[in-house]
Amino acid sequence: GIQVEQSPPDLILQEGANSTLRCNFSDSVNNLQWFHQNPWGQLINLFYIPSGTKQNGRLSATTVATERYSLLYISSSQTTDSGVYFCAVDQGGSEKLVFGKGMKLTVNP
Amino acid sequence: DAGVIQSPRHEVTEMGQEVTLRCKPISGHDYLFWYRQTMMRGLELLIYFNNNVPIDDSGMPEDRFSAKMPNASFSTLKIQPSEPRDSAVYFCASTEGQGRDYGQFFGPGTRLTVL
Hints:
The complex is a heterodimer of chains A (about 110) and B (about 120).
Chain A: E1 4-7, E2 10-14, E3 19-25, E4 32-37, E5 43-48, E6 52-56, E7 59-64, E8 69-74, E9 83-89, E10 98-99, E11 103-108
Parallel strand pairs in A: 2-11
Antiparallel strand pairs in A: 1-3, 3-8, 4-5, 4-9, 6-7, 7-8, 9-10, 9-11
Chain B: E1 5-7, E2 10-13, E3 19-24, E4 31-38, E5 42-50, E6 53-56, E7 65-71, E8 74-79, E9 88-95, E10 105-106, E11 110-114
Parallel strand pairs in B: 2-11
Antiparallel strand pairs in B: 1-3, 3-8, 4-5, 4-9, 5-6, 7-8, 9-10, 9-11
């Protein structure tokens, strides 16, 4: 099945810093999503981005489908950005999402 | 909309007992998914429904697990009998059909502990 790799696995930042999270996937996809799992365990849908670029406030995401990767940018990070960020993809038109292992972000005040 | 609703939020039970988890998807969404999250295996899809019909249950770990969706606004995931290795957080998610632009939305999860 499709493989999803996220990097870096962990990241510690000071408040106000910027960061880039990367997601590589091993096959073509119809769906790619970025999620944030906050410290309370809630999974929050950040972006649905099978291709192109989207922005939502301090967060933006870019997917280059032909090169099989996606990037999540966090600018001016805040302590509330802490948590685990997941990339998830489907494969071949199926609605099944395959999740990466996640990237733990810690933003210190 | 209130989002995806799951109940209970926490469940503690003893090995061998039956456990039923419940989910109400977002109104108008015709896909419903059940996931399990553990430290060892991460987030795994167990089963998903389209228009109340199970489409893919290949992720259901064994016969002790079953899921139903009797109508568009309700689904259950049942474990009978439960075992300690079933301890995990179980998420329900929903999404609209083709043509959407926003992907899957997750409920708050049910944290299951089997003693």
